[in-house]
Amino acid sequence: MLHPSESDKAITRKLKMAGENLDIKVLDHVIITENAFYSFADEGIL
Q1: Residue pLDDT, tens place only, 9-43
Q2: Predicted model pTM
Q3: Rounded CA gap, 2 and 16, in Å?
Q4: I need a surface site. Which of 6, 12, 29, 39 has the fewest CB within 10 A?
Q5: Nearest CA to 27 among 41, 11, 43?
């Protein structure tokens, strides 16, 4: 199973904050590899 790095978590927070400033709702941040994917929304982080 994939786990987001601290950098992944930090950029997700920044994207969410930037979206809020522009009245844009960030629905998900997805990390995709050759064999799997990780969804921040599925994990309840967003």
Answers
A1: 999 999 999 999 999 999 999 999 999 999 999 98
A2: 0.76
A3: 21
A4: 6
A5: 41
| Residues of the chain by 3-state class (helix, strand, coil), percent to 5 | 35, 15, 50
For the chain, what is the domain count? 1
Select from 5, 10, 44 the least CA-distant residue to 28: 44
39 strand-pairing partners = 30
Residue 35 tokens, joined: 């064999």
Calculate Rg over the CA atoms of the chain: 11
- Residue 46 within any structural domain of the chain: no
| Domain of 30, in residue numbers | 6-39
From first CA to last CA, the distance across the chain in angstroms is 19
Q: Which residue type does 5 have?
A: S
